[in-house]
From TrEMBL:
<keyword id="KW-0805">Transcription regulation</keyword>
<keyword id="KW-0238">DNA-binding</keyword>
<dbReference type="InterPro" id="IPR018060">
    <property type="entry name" value="HTH_AraC"/>
</dbReference>
<feature type="domain" description="HTH araC/xylS-type">
    <location>
        <begin position="97"/>
        <end position="176"/>
    </location>
</feature>
<protein>
    <submittedName>
        <fullName>AraC family transcriptional regulator</fullName>
    </submittedName>
</protein>
<dbReference type="InterPro" id="IPR009057">
    <property type="entry name" value="Homeodomain-like_sf"/>
</dbReference>
<dbReference type="Pfam" id="PF12833">
    <property type="entry name" value="HTH_18"/>
</dbReference>
<keyword id="KW-0804">Transcription</keyword>
């Protein structure tokens, strides 16, 4: 049996979900971001208990097929942006999303827009801007290195996109005392 879990977007999320599954004596065959494959099917009572426990820590057990596909798309985008330096860097986002989700990109793009109210491209941009904020706060890389790492064509392109989304230039953002970042699952 496969479960699809909304907001499961990082390794800590996987650990939290794993702890709940262990507490409920549910055996896991394989776990990926947003997806858990179990060794057995769950009865309604166990599935309801699991859904409640997941909800108590900010996750949602998905049962709608469209939402499951959208969650897969989000997880691919998050992996592309937040785990850069991997082989996914060399592949266009549309090709990678289509390949990982196993559907035509045009269908996925339309579905994502219908369910989320924004395009995959907008979601990708918002994720990239959050990553830029994170890297600016860490203050370990120059803006040029950040632009390079996130595959912007230039520092100017990154700066323009950053200002369009946040209302601030990257320099203004760095000067703020209270950095306003969003959680990955809130984007």
């Amino acid at each position: 049996m496969k479960l699809y879990i909304k907001n499961m977007v990082c390794d800590r999320c996987k650990m939290a979900v794993s702890q709940i599954l262990t507490q409920l004596n549910i055996e896991v065959r394989q776990m990926e971001l947003g997806e858990v494959e179990l060794n057995q099917d769950l009865d309604e009572n166990t599935q309801s208990t699991l859904a409640k426990q997941l909800a108590s820590i900010g996750f949602e057990l998905l049962d709608d097929k469209r939402k499951k596909i959208v969650e897969k798309i989000k997880n691919v985008v998050i992996e592309m942006v937040h785990q850069s330096g991997t082989d996914v860097d060399k592949i266009t986002p549309s090709f990678l999303i289509s390949e990982r989700v196993g559907r035509d990109y045009k269908y996925l793009s339309t579905l994502f827009s219908e369910v989320e109210g924004k395009t995959i491209e907008q979601y990708l941009i918002f994720q990239k801007i959050e990553k830029v904020k994170e890297l600016l706060i860490y203050d370990e890389l120059t803006l040029s290195q950040i632009a390079d790492q996130l595959h912007y064509s230039s520092v100017q392109h990154l700066s323009n996109q950053f200002k369009k989304v946040t209302g601030l230039t990257p320099s203004n953002f760095k000067e703020l005392q209270h950095h306003k970042r969003k959680a990955i699952d809130a984007i």
